[in-house]
Specification:
With 313 residues, the protein is of the alpha/beta class. Helices cover 40% and strands 15% of the residues.
Length: 313
């Protein structure tokens, strides 16, 4: 990533929202969410990656946020080995998309995006929205956390990711366990992104965000390339990040819409792109989108990044 350290790095957007353009059945309510498509519709997964490559993303994420060995065993009736290999498949599908983009001239020369292996929280497996409150933090043992995350991380690394995206983590406890865990894979880099409360002080589970972010970065500064927030309304980002100094920052906010399990999305979007210069002025080095942010929205973010870079060159 040496060349990318010189500029703002553009991430992709929502996988599930983009995937909904290519699959007929709604992903909302599925216990495997977009990860089911690794088995049921791999071509659609490739098309999502291609959309984000066309949008100019420097990094694309694997479709593995809600992928886990116990989840695949439970909901797809796969064996432990088959589940492990399906997580690895998320990497190969991203690689296939890059190869197609090179073949079709979407990517020029040697330029190609890096592949980040998406590592969602334990709460994503529970499929009850608990990545946004972290209620399970105290009832899950350290050993259970390690067992759950280690198998997924191993599969992604074995599959050939360039780095890990440790994302939507609701608590300092779970984050610290993962940050320590990746020391077992000293050649891999990772970013760490928390889910947070909208008030601008706390993680989703109620830890002081500045304390959690700083602590986790200091635990493993050799491997953690950035710390920040994702899947949060754009207006709530600045209060969280403005107190943090000396740490590379990452932001990929959602559209600002709220989701109700019974009613769906409220369609009350914020203009995410208007916040981009504010975040970049705070020191954000990695920027993209989360829920309800599709490829068209990523191009808007990219335009704002270019303007900012021109004004700050």
């Amino acid at each position: 990533m040496s060349d990318q350290k010189k500029k703002i790095v553009l991430l992709d957007g929502s996988f599930g929202f983009q995937l909904s353009k290519y699959v007929s059945k709604s992903l909302d309510g599925d216990p495997l969410w977009s990860a089911r498509s690794l088995a049921s519709d791999p071509e659609a997964v490739i098309r999502v990656h291609l959309d984000y490559i066309k949008a100019g993303c420097d990094i694309i994420e694997t479709n593995s946020y809600q992928a886990s060995i116990p989840g695949f065993m439970k909901y797809l009736n796969l064996s432990k080995e088959e589940s492990y290999n399906l997580i690895k498949k998320s990497v190969s599908l991203a690689k296939t998309a890059i190869e197609r983009a090179q073949r079709d001239g979407i990517l020029q020369g040697d330029a190609k995006p890096l592949i980040a292996g998406s590592v969602g929280p334990y709460g994503a497996y529970l499929h009850d929205g608990s990545e946004y409150n972290g209620y399970y933090t105290e009832r899950i043992s350290r050993e259970e956390f390690i067992d759950y995350h280690k198998s997924r991380i191993s599969a992604l690394i074995e599959g050939g990711v360039d780095l890990l995206a440790i994302e939507t983590i609701p608590s300092k406890t779970e984050a610290e366990i993962i940050v320590e865990l990746i020391k077992e894979y000293p050649n891999i880099k990772a970013w760490l992104s928390f889910s947070c409360q909208a008030e601008g002080v706390y993680t989703a589970h109620g830890d002081n965000f500045k304390d959690a972010a700083t602590s986790c970065y200091k635990l493993n500064p050799d491997q953690i390339i950035a710390v920040g927030v994702n899947c949060i309304a754009p207006h709530a980002v600045e209060p969280l990040l403005k107190e943090i100094t000396g740490i590379p920052l990452i932001v990929y906010a959602n559209s600002g819409e709220k989701y109700d399990p019974d009613l769906g999305w409220d369609n009350n979007c914020e203009k995410l792109e208007e916040y981009v210069p504010i975040w970049l002025n705070l020191g954000v080095k990695f920027i993209g989108g989360c829920c309800r942010v599709c490829d068209n929205y990523i191009t808007k973010i990219a335009d704002e990044v270019r303007k900012w870079e021109e004004n700050n060159s």
